[in-house]
Specification:
Blueprint (H helix, E strand, L loop, with lengths): L10 H12 L2 H13 L3 H29 L3 H9 L2 H36 L9 H13 L1 H20 L2 H28 L4 H9 L8 H14 L6 H6 L8 H29 L10 H12 L3 H33 L5 H21 L8 E2 L2 E2 H28 L2 H9 L3 H6 L1 H37 L1
Antiparallel strand pairs: 1-2
The chain binds phenylalanine.
Length: about 450
C-alpha cells in the first residue's frame, strides 16, 4: 500500500522547517570559529557575497526541482530527464544523507551530553580552557558516553521523522525554531552587556584583509553550501512538499536571511563572551566545547546560560538532522514504496551503524587513518568538500542547460507571479547566476577540494 504523499500545512511551516534544516551546527559551531581564524569581518563580507551570488540562486533552483516534481532527489531527476546519469546525481544526494547524518549526529550527541554536563555543573571547576579541553577529551574518550548520546540523539531524530512531514517535521520545527531564536537572542544580549564585550564586537566587525587569499574565498563558499543544506537534496525534498501557490524566490530569500542572521548572531554572542572573559578566540573547532565552558564559569549567571546554550545547540542540530533523515526516508517511500515507519526505523539504525566508526575516531579508533584523516574527518571531508559542491554544480548545470529555460521559468513563476510582473530584471539576473556564475564558482571550489585531496594522497604515499 502506498501512503498519500504529504504537503506542508502552511507556507510558514515550510519556511521554519527549511530554516531549521539550514540553521544547525554549521551556524553555531563552525561559523564562529571559521570567522575567528579567517580575518573576522573580512571573511564575513566574502561569505555574504557568496551567499547572495551563489547560495540564494542555487537554493531557489534546488527547491524548484523538488516542488515541480513532488519527489525525492532520485525520483525528481528521473522525472525531469529520463537519463541514468541524472538519476545517479539524485542517488549521490541520498548517499550524502547517510554520510553527513552519520557523523553530524555524533557531534550533536556531544551537544546533548553537554546539556547534562551543564545541569550537573560539571565544568564549573575549570578556570582554564585546557582543563575544559581535558574534560572534553575524557568524555569523548569514553565509548559509552559518546555512543550513548549519539544513539539518544538518533532516536530523537527518528521520532520526529517517524511522525511524518506535517505532524513531525513541521510541528517540531514550529515549536523548536522560536525557542532557538529566543535563546540565541538572550545569549547575544548577555554577551553584549558583559564589560569588555566591545573588543569582541570589533573583532567580528573589523575586517583584517591581510589574512584573506583565494583559499578564504573558497572556504566561504563551502561554508555557504553546508550551512544552507544545499547540494544533496535536503532542500529539494523539503521543496517537494511545497504547494505551487507559494513563492519559491521569497521563501528562499527568507530562509537565507534567517540562516545568515543566526550565524551572525551566534558569532556576536560567542565572541563578545570570549573576549569579555579574556579567552582566546582562535581556538578553532574546540571553541564551543573547550572555551565556552570556561566563559560560562566566569560570567555572571553562567550556570543558566550554559544550559540555555547547549539546549540551543541541540535544537539547532536536531532540526538539521531530521532533514537529512527525511531525504533518505522520502527516497524509500517514493521510489521503493516502503512505509514511512519502516523506512525510518531501518535507515535510522543503518545511519547509526555507519556512524559508529566516526564516534570511535575519538577513542578506540583514534589511530585509524584514511588519507591521513581519521574516520570522522574523512566522512566530513567527502561530504562537505566533495559531495555537496559537486551536487550543487550538477544541479545548476541541470537547471541552466538540461531542463530547458522556458520550462524552468514557467515552474518558477507559480506563486511568484508578482515578482515576474514587477521585477523581470531580477528573474533575468537569476538566470545569469544559475547558468554562469554558479557553475564556474563551484567548479573552482571543487578544484580546490581535489587539490587538497592530491596533497593528502601524496602524504599517504
Ligand atoms: N545546514 C546544516 C548546518 O548548518 C547542515 C546540513 C547540511 C543539513 C546538509 C542538511 C544537509 O548545520
Amino acid at each position: 500500500m502506498t501512503e498519500q504523499r504529504e504537503q506542508w500545512g502552511s507556507k510558514i511551516g515550510f519556511i521554519l522547517a527549511a530554516a531549521g534544516s539550514a540553521i544547525g551546527l554549521g551556524n553555531i559551531w563552525k561559523f564562529p570559529y571559521i570567522v575567528g581564524q579567517n580575518g573576522g569581518a573580512a571573511f564575513i563580507i566574502i561569505y555574504l557575497i557568496c551567499t547572495a551570488v551563489i547560495g540564494l540562486p542555487v537554493l531557489i533552483g534546488e527547491i524548484l526541482i523538488g516542488r515541480t516534481t513532488q519527489r525525492n532527489p532520485v525520483g525528481a531527476f528521473k522525472q525531469l530527464s529520463k537519463t541514468k546519469f541524472w538519476a545517479a546525481v539524485g542517488s549521490m544526494g541520498i548517499l550524502a544523507g547517510f554520510i553527513i547524518l552519520s557523523y553530524y549526529a555524533v557531534v550533536a550527541g556531544w551537544a546533548l551530553g553537554y546539556i547534562f554536563e551543564a545541569f550537573t555543573g560539571n565544568f564549573f571547576d575549570f578556570s582554564e580552557p585546557t582543563q575544559a579541553g581535558d574534560h572534553f577529551g575524557l568524555l569523548t574518550g569514553n565509548v559509552y558516553w559518546i555512543i550513548g548520546f549519539f544513539a539518544l540523539f538518533m532516536i530523537l531524530t527518528m521520532g520526529v521523522v517517524f511522525a511524518g512531514v506535517q505532524k513531525g517535521i513541521e510541528r517540531g520545527s514550529k515549536v523548536l525554531m522560536p525557542i532557538l531564536f529566543l535563546l540565541l537572542i538572550i545569549l547575544m544580549i548577555r554577551g553584549i552587556t558583559l564589560p569588555g564585550s566591545e573588543v569582541g564586537i570589533s573583532f567580528i566587525l573589523k575586517p583584517d584583509w591581510s589574512v584573506v587569499n583565494a583559499q578564504t574565498v573558497l572556504l566561504a563558499l563551502g561554508q555557504a553550501f553546508f550551512t544552507l543544506s544545499m547540494g544533496m537534496g535536503a532542500m529539494l525534498t523539503y521543496g517537494s512538499y511545497m504547494s505551487k501557490k507559494d513563492s519559491i524566490p521569497s521563501s528562499a530569500l527568507q530562509i537565507t536571511v534567517l540562516d545568515t542572521s543566526i550565524a551572525l548572531i551566534a558569532g556576536i554572542a560567542i565572541f563578545t563572551s570570549v573576549f569579555a572573559t579574556g579567552l582566546d578566540p582562535n581556538a578553532g573547532p574546540g571553541l564551543i566545547f573547550h572555551t565556552l565552558p570556561v566563559v560560562f564559569t566566569k560570567m555572571p549567571g553562567g550556570f543558566i546560560f550554559s544550559i540555555f546554550f547547549f539546549i540551543l545547540l541541540t535544537i539547532a542540530a536536531i532540526t538539521s538532522a531530521i532533514s537529512l533523515l527525511e531525504v533518505i526516508t522520502a527516497y524509500f517511500v517514493d521510489e521503493r514504496k516502503w512505509r514511512r515507519h519502516k523506512a525510518v526505523i531501518i535507515f535510522g539504525t543503518i545511519v547509526f551503524l555507519i556512524g559508529i566508526p566516526s564516534a570511535l575516531s575519538f577513542n578506540l579508533m583514534s589511530d585509524f587513518h584514511l588519507f591521513n584523516l581519521n574516520f570522522f574527518d574523512f566522512m566530513d571531508f567527502i561530504a562537505s568538500n566533495i559531495l555537496l559542491p559537486l551536487g550543487g554544480l550538477l544541479m545548476s548545470i541541470f537547471i541552466g542547460y538540461i531542463w530547458g529555460m522556458d520550462k524552468v521559468l514557467k515552474e518558477l513563476k507559480f506563486g511568484a507571479e508578482k515578482l515576474f510582473d514587477r521585477y523581470p530584471l531580477l528573474v533575468k539576473f537569476w538566470q545569469v547566476f544559475i547558468k554562469y556564475f554558479a557553475p564556474v564558482f563551484i567548479f573552482l571550489v571543487l578544484l580546490q577540494s581535489t587539490g587538497i585531496l592530491d596533497t593528502l594522497i601524496s602524504i599517504f604515499e
